[in-house]
Amino acid sequence: MVKIPTRILLVDDEVDFVEMLSMRLQEAGEKVTPAYNGEECLKLLEKQKDHIDVVILDIRMPGMDGIEVLREIKNRFPLIEVIMLTGHGTTESAVEGMKLGAFDYLLKPADFDELAQKLEGARERKDEQEARIRKAESRLLVRRTGGA
Amino acid sequence: MEEMIRILLVDDEDSFRGTVSKRLSRRSIDVLTAADGREALELLDRDPVEVVVTDVKMPGMDGIELLRQIKENYPDIEVILLTGHVAASDGVEGIKGGAFDYLTKPVELEHLVSKIRQAGEKIRWRRDQRKEAEFRKRMEQQMMITERLAALGTMATGVAHEINNPLAIIRESAGWMRLILGKEEMAAVPRRSDLELALNKIEIGVERAKRITHQLLGFVQKDDALSAEVDLPMLIEESLGMVKREAVHKGIEIVRDIQPLEKPVYSDPYQIRQVLLNLITNAVHATGGGGRITVVLKSVQGGVLIQIRDTGEGIPPEHMRKIFEPFFTTKCPGKGTGLGLFVTRGIIDRLGGTIEAESRPGEGSVFTVTLPRRHEIRKNDIASELNTC
Ligand SMILES: Nc1ncnc2c1ncn2[C@@H]1O[C@H](COP(=O)(O)OP(=O)(O)OP(=O)(O)O)[C@@H](O)[C@H]1O
Ligand SMILES: [Mg+2]
Prior knowledge:
The structure holds two protein chains of two kinds. Chain A starts with 6 loop residues before the first strand and ends with a helix. In chain A, α2 (38-48) packs parallel to α3 (66-76). Chain A has helices at residues 15-27, 38-48, 66-76, 91-99, 112-147, and strands spanning 7-11, 31-35, 54-58, 81-86, 104-107. Chain A has a five-stranded parallel sheet, sandwiched between helices. Chain A has a single domain, classed as Response regulator (Rossmann fold). Chain A is α/β, with parallel strands linked by helices. Chain A is globular and about 55 Å long. Chain A is built from five helices and five strands; from the N terminus they run βαβαβαβαβα. In chain B, α7 (232-250) runs parallel beside α8 (269-286). By secondary structure, chain B is an alpha/beta fold. In chain B, the strands form three sheets. A five-stranded parallel sheet of chain B has the order 2-1-3-4-5, with helices on both faces. Chains A and B meet through α1 and α4 of A and α5 and α6 of B. The complex binds adenosine-5'-triphosphate and magnesium ion (MG). Adenosine-5'-triphosphate is lined by residues 215, 278, 282-283, 286, 310, 312-315, 323, 328-331, 336-342, 365 of chain B.
């Protein structure tokens, strides 16, 4: 069976990190779009919200920080899952992030297998969520047509 | 009620000793008696008193000599000399030798009582002074430790930020190379095993550096992070779960002595988990096959007590003082950072608890942690202030 790639938006201000991790994820069969700050991330999502499953988001970035970006994402694109990544001792922001609806978080340097596992989990949750919405919609539709 | 005071009355005249001691006893003064200097010193050896009242003119050792010996051996005891009417110079000499005061015989009882009381007050005052000085010194030491921890916390933040990011790049790059090397088209690459060996070493190196930075990061977390109801039995299970594989592999028995807590504990669960994990990991490392690790949890006055006991190799007394210092480790390079207990102590300090270690080399070690039921959050910690960006 061919693996359906997870469509990832990778957001980190560390250019070399984004480059290497993108290559690795792509090699593992995922589809990666890079972004280097929060503003760029949100702009990209605006344009391609139906083409992104999971955002991997660095918490600490100059400009808009990861938590703010996360809040925006969950507000505007609630179906997109977010995995937070941090190079800093900011477990409490990670906890805050979880409360805001992030799927999970990892501390840098993260273990690739662990990241892959979390990506899979996030992807599953998104698929389930979408399936549930589709089901609810079709039920609504049935009821409406049934009533007519 | 006047405070009871204990004195030793030394005089070679039996009748004087008898009457004076009887009358003093009625004034809530507890009196021991001795007939000469030698007997007095013997008594002091066994039975401590606060004040010695001694006659100066005595056969054998005189009062001045007795004073000298008392001051030498029991500097805390105050001495009141009783001198003859014509021998006031004895009294002066006595004062020079450190006597509290001298009274001339015949002694008026009221006068003697009030002198004894004054001497008692002086002793008490000196004791209080000393206690206060000790207290101040302890506080200063505590402050020094706290400041050191804060400074280290600040540095750790910087180190973590600066190191973890490049570490992530190194790790991803090595992972990438490994991936390429695994491709079919690379099957015939020359010296493959050399390349793989080098990649291994890079990955192990990254892991090692990561352990240091992550350990330090646990330490830096802000104080105002959390104060939530903590499910200690669950945290203990979680931490035990993380070392289970190693423990089973080594054949270590894990015993739980977990008592239901009377009242909930409010603290920072993440930091407590790190404490538990550090202590349990240490115990597993120190314990060999057939050993046992016991985790105790119980309520105590004002909080909870957590104890991690092991039947491992123990800690030699000369290491005991150093185990909480940063980077002290007896483990091989790459195996231990020597930060575990340092960080643990830092965390417990901030959570308002205590930690103590006891050990018998060859028999095992006990680490006892107490945590208050409610942890007061110290907001303006230097480290946490500098940590907010
Ligand atoms: N339960 C124990 N039994 C015997 N020795 C111990 C125990 N706990 C700590 N020690 C001693 O104290 C030293 C310091 O412990 P600490 O946890 O700070 O660092 P470490 O365990 O060496 O390194 P790390 O925590 O990074 O693995 C250890 O190297 C060991 O010598
Ligand atoms: Mg340790």
